[in-house]
Design goal:
Blueprint (H helix, E strand, L loop, with lengths): L3 H8 L17 E7 L2 E9 L4 H14 L8 E8 L4 E2 L2 E5 L6 E8 L7 H13 L5 E5 L7 H4 L8 E2 L5 E2 L1 E3 L2 E4 L15 H13 L6 E7 L6 H9 L4 E6 L3 H16 L4 E12 L5 E2 L6 H9 L3 E7 L1 H8 L13 H17 L1
Parallel strand pairs: 2-3, 6-12, 6-13, 7-11, 7-12, 13-14, 14-16
Antiparallel strand pairs: 1-2, 4-5, 8-9, 10-11, 14-15
Length: 348
């Protein structure tokens, strides 16, 4: 028997293009009308990419074709434009988080490239300019911001209206699942619940007045990433990679994801670019020139190259990020200051 529920079950097999989450769980299906054996599906989308509704249209047709006894299938789209950029500054989009002027996403196509280290030190370097900065750890399954800020013993408070008060460390406001769980407690939740937690971090956190909110995204291009770009308008994105091809392959996917959803690409950070021994010799352990070549291919700038540095790793483990040191005396802190300057110039 064909009814609304049987149609909806079939539609749950249609994923949003490029992502693992289906169009039903994303709330894109606005109406299902069944008349005899004929089916009408209304889909609501906010996109400027014509390939997205085409792919969804094809997916729905293929899914409903497997519905036994189905007659005519009609698919209508309610298409809306995403939020427009701020007038006079096409690289910066309006944020829907009260009090937050600019939202900057730090992303990578894969794990293990030092994305969270870059995110934390970028946030601190921005705050050293006098800006008010917050950081949201969106990597629910592998949260590391609490450790890097040396604040694992702190816990966010909640107001009587269930709003979250972020913790403060090193001049930053911060929220992370790492503040809510013990170090040996895993986060075991399915995708929809994970995206709900992420939305709560963004929407229900009392960030106050911030010049910049840094989002430390989880690696990859999955459900949480798409939920974030649909939840808030992002002013710019920083893609972190290492020079080797296996990391660059995934960096391309991250860039492609942001381009699909019209998020400005601020640039690429080539992390672990080389190791310099005590005699001043540089060893390109993960290859050489890969980040520069890839940035040229993608048409985005290389913002900075960051070498492998023992002190950077050690200070992150101790909750004292390298960017807290004086840039005039520490070369790695100076690199993050340059990164902060370039990001500020790009997003305004």
């Amino acid at each position: 028997m064909i009814n609304e529920e049987s149609v909806r079950e079939k539609l749950k097999k249609v994923n949003y293009p490029g992502f693992s989450r289906d169009i039903v769980s994303f709330g894109l299906i606005k109406r299902i009308t069944v008349s005899g054996n004929d089916v009408l599906v209304l889909v609501s989308l906010a996109t400027r990419d014509p390939a997205v509704p085409r792919a969804i249209h094809q997916g729905i047709e293929e899914a409903l074709a497997t519905l036994e006894g189905v007659g005519r299938v009609e698919i209508d789209f309610d298409l809306k434009d995403p939020p427009e950029p701020v007038a006079g500054n096409p690289a910066a989009a309006q944020t829907s988080i009260p009090g937050v002027k600019k939202v900057i996403a730090v992303a990578s196509g894969k794990g293990g490239v030092g994305k969270s280290t870059v995110a934390v030190n970028l946030a601190i370097a921005l705050s050293r300019t006098g800006a008010k900065v917050g950081i949201c750890d969106c990597d629910l399954y592998g949260p590391s911001i609490a450790l890097m800020l040396g604040a694992t013993d702190q816990q966010p408070m909640a107001t009587e209206h269930n709003e979250i008060i972020p913790i403060e460390a090193h001049g930053l406001k911060a929220i992370s699942m790492g503040f809510l769980l013990s170090e040996d407690s895993p986060v075991i939740v399915r995708g929809p619940l994970a995206t709900r937690y992420t939305q709560q971090f963004l929407r229900q956190c009392l960030w106050g007045e911030l010049d910049y909110l840094i989002l430390d995204l989880p690696p990859g291009t999955g459900d949480i990433q798409l939920t974030i770009v649909q939840t808030v308008s992002i002013s710019g994105s920083v893609i972190v990679t290492t020079p080797q091809e296996v990391a660059l392959i995934d960096a391309r996917k991250a860039v492609a994801m942001f381009q699909k959803v019209h998020v400005p690409i601020t640039g690429l950070v080539e992390n672990m670019a080389w190791f310099e021994c005590e005699h001043g010799t540089k060893y390109p352990i993960f290859g050489e020139g890969g980040g520069t070549a890839e940035a040229e291919r993608l048409g985005v700038p290389v913002l900075v190259q960051i070498p492998i540095d023992i002190a950077t790793r050690d200070r992150a483990d101790r909750g004292e990020p390298i960017a807290t040191l004086d840039p005039s005396t520490n070369p790695i802190s100076a690199v993050f200051s340059v990164l902060a300057e370039k990001v500020m110039a790009a997003v305004g």
